[in-house]
Amino acid sequence: MTGSAPLIGIVGSGIAGLRAANALLKCGVDARIVILGDEAHRTYSRPGLTKKRYPPPDGIEAATEGLKVPGVENTALTWHLDTRVETADLRDRVLRLSTGDTLAYDRLVIASGVRPRTSAEGDRECAVHAHRTLRGLDDARSIHQELQKSKKVTIAGAGFVACELASLAKEYGCEVVMLEALRHGPFERILGTTAARSLRSWIARNGVTFLTGDAARNMLCDGAGRLTKDASGPKDAYLEPASDRSLYIEAIGSVPNVEWLRGNGLDLSDGVRVDEYMRVADCEDVFAAGDIARYPDPWTSESLTRMEFWKNAIDTGDLAGKSLASSLGYDAKISRIKYFPNMVTEVFGLRIQIAGNPKISDSMEIVRGDLERPDHGVVVKYLREGAMVGAAYLDRGARLNSLYIELLTALRAR
Q1: Among positive and negative, which fits the CA dihedral 277, 280, 283, 287?
Q2: What is the per-residue DSSP string for 196-257?
């Protein structure tokens, strides 16, 4: 590395930031690469936080080794952990840090991700519930410790994190209530109402009280021991404080971490807008990747998308690193984003695989099986104007796996 090597700042120590750094190294970029993360931990597998329980005496601390991802020990990278970027001056290429220091950079990768959305205001302490959200390792440590007490847990939301936590909580022996006030069941925005209702029934059959609509809305807590059913009544209608507060986990979506970028003239309406090469508009030296990047959707024309899945963070991180390398004159062989959505989860033993972009479909077709019996295997394809745009596979084994792979092959070739 030469003394005049440029400094590349990567804001975000998640998988997108790490993959961008590794892509730079693979391209042979002669640069100082600094990764800044507001967590105290180097990159780890976030999906692993809700995939299995970590019983004592080992606990989640011992499981941390199993959550490591390749590349975190690379000595070519400089890490500044437990460090938040407060503001950025993109014109003068300077970051102001929570430590009081500043970092001058030559190229920048924005990979600051998202944080959980919450209903509570400020740092109020609820007298009735122990409110929690799950995004990082420290959150998971706290939640797993609570779940090990095998008491009642209420989960607001019905997305991937919410469903995995419900399954996990039952494994710990908890009484579980799920609240989905806006939709009919899990993953409705992606898979549609019919599949959502099927998944709601499956979760209920496994011992979870699953409430929707007004029934769910009436159980939501605003973080101050106040139920939202009293919204039309007195604003000081609180529940009686409980001596042993029950666990209340909010998994109601996320908020992109863009506040530190304000004042730079960027489009921050939903994450950071980038082009098909992960380049931030009007900033030739700035790139973005991961949950925070909003890019041209390869699956629809003239629209933008922002994905919050592990594979998306990997793919966009790789592309951002290669695009940055190319901007420095290196042969990075970049091509525009061709992200193929492909996600997998397991809820109460039911494996759920989703590929493509079902949420843009205008119709669905059950290829095999019955959504009333998802554990017996069911394959669904999603169509838009007669063309397949997505597929889903639900099963408690692998009976229809070959059929699902056929659909994936057809989707990739579209």
Answers
A1: negative
A2: HHHHHHHHHHTT-EEEEHHHHHTT-B-SSS-BGGGTTS-TT-PPPP-SSPEEEEE-S-EEE-
Amino acid at the residue 356: G
Q: Tell me the residue type at 186.
A: P
* Amino acid, res. 241: P
Instruction: Write phi, then psi, for 305 (nearest 5 degrees).
Output: -140, 155
Q: Buried (b) or exposed (e) across 207-246, using 16+ Cβ within 10 A?
A: ebebbbeeebbebbbbbbbbbeeeeeeeeeeeeeeeeebb
Please report the DSSP string for 72-133 in residue order: TT-TTEEEE-S--EEEEETTTTEEEETTS-EEE-SEEEE---EEE--SS-TTPPPSSEEEE-
Residues 170, 176, 178, 184, CA torsion sign: positive
Question: HSE-up of 219 (CA within 13 Å, CB side)?
Answer: 20
Q: Two tokens at 354?
A: 């989703």
Residues ≥6 apart with Cβ < 8 Å to 250: 116, 117, 118, 119, 131, 132, 133, 156, 157
**Residue 140 contacts residue 60 (beta carbons within 8 Å):** yes
Residue 87, strand partner residues: 96
Please state, as a whole number, how many other Cβ atoms lie within 10 Å of the Cβ of residue 101: 10
Digits of tens for pLDDT over the chain (414 positions)?
555 899 999 999 999 999 999 999 999 999 999 999 999 999 999 988 888 877 666 666 676 677 888 888 889 999 999 999 999 999 999 999 999 999 999 999 999 999 999 886 656 678 788 889 999 999 998 999 899 987 899 999 999 999 999 999 999 999 999 999 999 999 999 999 999 999 999 999 999 999 999 999 999 987 766 665 544 444 443 444 444 578 999 999 999 999 999 999 999 999 999 999 999 988 989 999 999 999 999 888 778 999 999 999 999 999 999 999 999 999 998 999 988 889 999 999 999 999 999 999 999 999 999 999 999 999 999 999 999 999 999 999 999 999 999 999 999 887
Question: What is the DSSP code (8-state) at residue 397?
Answer: S
Provide the pairing of β-strand 152-156 with 246-250.
Answer: parallel
